Amino acid sequence: MALVLILQLLTFWPLCHTDITPTVPPASYPKPQLGAQPAAIVTPGVNVTLRCRAPQPAWRFALFKSGEIAPVLYRDVSEELAEFFLEEVTPAQGGSYRCCYRNPGWAPGVWSHPSDALELLVTDTLPRPSLVALPSPVVAPGDNVSLRCAGRMRNMSFVLYRVGEAAPLQYHDSTQPWADFPLPGARAPGTYSCYYHTPAAPYVLSQRSDPLVISSDGSGSSDYTLGNLIRLGLAGLILVSLATLVVLDWRTGSRAPGGV
Q1: Exposure string (b/e) for 122-148, b if CB count within 10 Å is 16 or more?
Q2: d(CA 133, CA 183)
Q3: pTM of the entire structure?
Q4: Range of the domain at 186
Q5: Residues 146, 182 contacting (CB under 8 angstroms)
Q6: One domain, residues 102 and 142
Q7: For 187-230, what is each residue's pLDDT tens digit?
């Protein structure tokens, strides 16, 4: 039995492992596509199906996980699609998966090129995003600001909150690992946070970002204060001038004849 298993591994390994370049023409043995249902990001305990679809009829499919030499699973089917079932997944089952296939008409030991890697993430929470203001967290009067919530994965749904308000301020679905939330400058000052989650059930949520404070640069109030300072300075100068005139008049009167 052990000898049979070793022979099977040697059959899978040469052409399906990603570290070895196949010697067959790429066009003759195109790679399959690997997908996950219900999603590639799930919480622990969810049943996940990895679907390997070949571009031509196949006979046997193999599923590989990064870091493991032997196939995780294989399926013998007489069609273009093979399904690999992962029941009640755990975080340990997360990782990078690939699949390959072979056709009964091919030479012995010949397998297709491996599929592109599929990253399966099994977690209760997604990594905390960051929240930054573009171009600056200090907004000048009349200018607008954009808040960027950045996570680590693409194709997520992003949500922006403003502290003191229970309902989300904005939603945004993004194919990039970030989303931009535009805010009008007049209403921008405040404290904000964001998070992101998978776009479809079963939902996996990230933690909230650290709070971000948006403030006004107060240039209008600064001009008002400067004007007041100038007015106070002029008033002070007038008072000093009047006091000087009073003193001079008093000294002149005290020196006049008959003043003794």
Answers
A1: beeebebbebebeeebbbeeeeebebb
A2: 10
A3: 0.65
A4: 125-219
A5: yes
A6: no
A7: 899 999 999 999 887 789 999 999 999 998 865 444 444 555 56
